Amino acid sequence: ALSPCPLSSGWLPALQFVRRGSKAVTRHWKAMHFQRQKLMAVTEYVAPRPAVPPRCRPPAKEKAEEDNGYARLLRRQVEEVFRDNRMIAVCQYNPMAGEDVVLMRQYLRKHSIEVKFVLNEIVRPVLSQSKYKNLLPLFVARNILLVSREAKVKEMLRVLKGVPQINLLGACIDDTILSRRGVENFAKLPSLEAAQGQTVGALALLPSQTSSLLQRGSAHLTALLDQHIRQL
């Protein structure tokens, strides 16, 4: 009997030729021709200059950010601080240990001075619409407010002298804006009671001097007449 055909039973040859190799690269980077570079540079689009320089145009109005309740609450608190206190000192705050902050607050609270940590984005809109707008240049970096219902300037400067991380920039005392030098000069002034006493004493001295001058002539005349009577 004849054996079946190997091709009919799925016979495959023992050797198979498979092509293995890298893919042919047909594109290489090539520098642009010099003439083409010049042509591209000449034909490059140049936008026309505006008729009015940008620096001469009015500043574009910033879009009003959507206000929220928390921001309104913070602004209302800032308004109350400036309305209810006679002394508002603006200070630059540098990082310091938490224990030092607690001690500073305790020393200031003994003199009825409170420490208020504020945000510039909250304070600046409030001041820009009030009579304290001249304080705006002080609110640039991180700031704190030292507020008191009384003008405790000497006590505040005494405490800040031992806290180098807090730098006094300026203050508003009795609706008067003062620089750092102005605050230091204000601290050298006598108290209100002492100034009132000096004023009253000066005012009382003038009438007494006038009265003594008016009475000096009559008293001198009386003394001369008495002496003349005695001689007679």
From TrEMBL:
The answer, when asked if Calcium is one of the entry's keywords, is no
Q: Which UniProt keywords apply?
A: Mitochondrion, Ribonucleoprotein, Ribosomal protein, Transit peptide
Q: What does the UniProt entry say about where the protein is found?
A: Mitochondrion
Coiled-coil intervals, chain numbering:
none
Please name the Pfam families in this protein's record: Ribosomal_L10
Q: Does the keyword Iron-sulfur apply?
A: no
- What's an example GO cellular component term for this entry? mitochondrial inner membrane
Instruction: Name the predominant localization.
Output: mitochondrion
Q: Which family does it belong to?
A: Belongs to the universal ribosomal protein uL10 family.
Name of the protein this chain belongs to: Large ribosomal subunit protein uL10m
